Amino acid sequence: MSAAVTGPRRRLRWLPLAPATVVLLLFLAGPIGYCVYIAFTDLQLTGQESASFVGFDNFTRAFGDENFRNAVVLTLVFTLVSSIVGQNTLGLALAALMKRASRTARTVTGALVITAWVLPEIVAGFLLYTFFSRDGQLNAILAWLQLPEQNWLFTLPILAVSFANVWRGTAFSMLVYSAALDDIPREVTESAQVDGASGFQRLWYITLPMIRRSIGTNLMLNTLQTLSVFGLIWAMTKGGPAHRSETLPVFMYDQAFNKSLIGYGTAVALLLLLVGALFSVVYLRLLREEV
Amino acid sequence: MRPTAPLILSLTAALTAGTLAACGGSGSGDKNTVEIAFHKETDNKVTFRDDYLKFVAEKFEKKYAGKKVKLVPIQAPQQDYYSKIQQMMRSPKTAPDLVYEDTFLINSDIESGYLRPLDGYLKDWKDWDRFQPAARQAASGADGKTYGVPDGTDTRGLWFNRKIFKRAGLPADWTPRTWEDVLEAARRIKKEVPGVIPLNVFAGKGAGEATAMQGFEMLLYGTGKDPLYDTRSKKWVQGSKGFRDSLAFLDTLYREKLGPEPEQVVDPNVTTKVVTQLLPEGKLAIALDGSWLSQNWIKTGGKPWPQWRKTMGLTPMPTQHGSPPGEVSMSGGWAWSIPAKAGNPDLAWKMIQTMQTRENAVEWCIRGSQVAVRSDVAEDARYRTSMPGIDFFTERVEHTHYRPALPVYPQVSTAITEATEAVATGDSSPKDAAKAYDEQLSGIADGAVTRK
């Protein structure tokens, strides 16, 4: 049969896929191509008769722009704190604890954590803005505990938005790890226990190596998602005060829509894509290695 | 070919065509509907603009049988509203027939070719002569054509709470002559009436154009002539003492804790907070703000506060050292424009005319606490008696300043808000912030800068 599939037949087989291909080309490849094109022009949203091609100007400008470099650093901090350390570790810890917890505890915790995840980003943003704000719930709790007030939205905005992202995104890691932990055969853990391995040793030598692939996948998805977080930060701080929580997506929006520099904003978007690609390459590498 | 091949082929074609057609979207092809895009306040209770447009729409639909009005409220912070309408105007599919343009942005949008010149319509419209020349100027482009019909203006000054002033031992007819007088009063309030914010001057990106205009430019234009843009040499002013002094005023205000807390300053909702919370609740003594504040306090406003007539006093903002004319005001205002890609421009023009019958124009000035730009409206008895303070703000028109009506102004304004934010949050000294502004300005103005 396979030998018979030649020439026109082979082409015909592609036909049923044609609608999907056309739509993908039009709505995925099209905008991306347009985006790349715009990044090399000085297109403005307003105040300009016609845009012109400017080559690599937008990119050289970005690297010379102090605020851009600031945004890159903050993006890395935000990703590291909220995604790699926060969501990932907390998700694993929750999954491991829930495995041992009673049924009720598991249901309640699971429901609560997933609620945070299900909330639309902008709603979560406003909730956490009120939580952290000067007269918000966090300060009410701190006052009740006789602890000093916090004012992180102003003093440490990047930490406040990182916490917010941990709060919102941990559920995803928890779900991934719950599934992964369920896949570890009971016999392996039990025999380790019989051999006298401590809890930490079992985690380090049995559990982690066995869920290595899930860790890789989870890290990659988390990181890519965190890199593009915009609504949460926009609702909470607008990137301020004075650029102190301005990650790349916020910087990009500010340039493109507040300063009307669409061309420059798009160039920044491409650079953001590059950062994401770098992370992906690293994780893919980790995933490929065999134990 | 197998017998099924033609079937697959036709199915494929049908599917592709179907999918694409579904994406084609439905532009406002309706010739009998005029679509009006306007800014809706983020506070849901503030609906005077929506209410007025519904009021006019009803009259319009009655007058032109078979025609419909579709309101497209855009509920967003002002800055996001601007971006949104600009994006809508880029495509004929999304362009409204009528759009509410801030006159500070109109030149930028004219330059982009988003708007349609109205001269053809205006030459046959006798009411156009009743508009103040300055207001007509505000809606015209560098090519001398007019692109919008302004529906009012605004002026700015100092609002102060007489009750707090009494407790601080300050006069009920307070008339500061210099910046120092203003700061002195604030210091006194801080000392005598603890727990009250003495003086609010907007700073920071959160308040957007309010920071640039109500806040910074009200100071800057009191430091000398043409402090922002030199009209004679057509260049933007760089490195001026007035600019540094104005930042220094903010620095004093926030370092001595005479203003709101820094995190209140950078709060994106600060403009609404001042008018609907801080002032009515008696938590703020002096506000450097605009003529429209009282529209929030009337019965249909966001924060009805009937006592404001007795509580709030008004006084002009003085110049830096009291030099003539002794007071500063800035003016802006909004205009109705027809996008270049509008589907029904003629119907849109009829709508503008309906809004601008004398009766409806007076109605708008009253509902929107607008300072009139039409001579017949300014004389109207109903307008003159509509609101305490309307006389005060109408008088300010004499010495008011308009912002440089240039396409790059919005970018300059953003640079100003960044400088004020850096100073108010204590991130930069006035000198460093002024330097950072100068650097940005060179880029924005593409070298068209001059030093003073």
Walkthrough of the structure:
The complex is a heterodimer of chains A (291) and B (452). Chain A has 291 residues and is mainly α. Helix content of chain A is 76%, strand content 0%. Chain A has helices at 7-14, 18-39, 57-64, 66-100, 103-118, 121-132, 137-144, 152-155, 157-182, 186-194, 199-210, 212-227, 231-236, 248-258, 262-288. In chain A, helix 3 packs across helix 15 and helix 9 runs antiparallel to helix 12. Chain B has two domains: 33-150 and 333-402, D-Maltodextrin-Binding Protein, domain 2; 156-331 and 405-451, Periplasmic binding protein-like II (D-Maltodextrin-Binding Protein, domain 2, 3-Layer(aba) Sandwich), CATH 3.40.190.10. Chain B has a five-stranded mixed sheet with strand order 2-1-3-12-4, with helices on both faces. In chain B, strands 6-9-5-10 form a four-stranded mixed sheet.
Strand content of chain A: under 5%
Molecular shape of chain A: globular
CATH fold field value of chain A: MetI-like fold
Percent helix among the residues of chain B? 40-55%
Assembly context of the chains = heterodimer
Superfamily at the CATH H level of the largest domain in chain B? Periplasmic binding protein-like II
Give the CATH level 1 class of the largest domain in chain B.
Alpha Beta
Number of domains of chain B: 2
Poorly predicted tracts of residues of chain A = none
Number of E strands of chain A: 0
Mean pLDDT across all amino acids of chain A: 88
Secondary structure category of chain A: mainly alpha
- The CATH architecture category of chain A equals Orthogonal Bundle
CATH superfamily of chain A: MetI-like
Class per helix and strand makeup of chain B = alpha/beta
How big is the Rg of chain B?
24 Å
In DSSP terms, counting alpha (H) and pi (I) runs of 4 or more, how many helices of chain B?
Answer: 20
How would a crystallographer describe the biggest sheet of chain B?
A: 5 strands, mixed
Kindly provide the name of the CATH class of chain A. Answer: Mainly Alpha
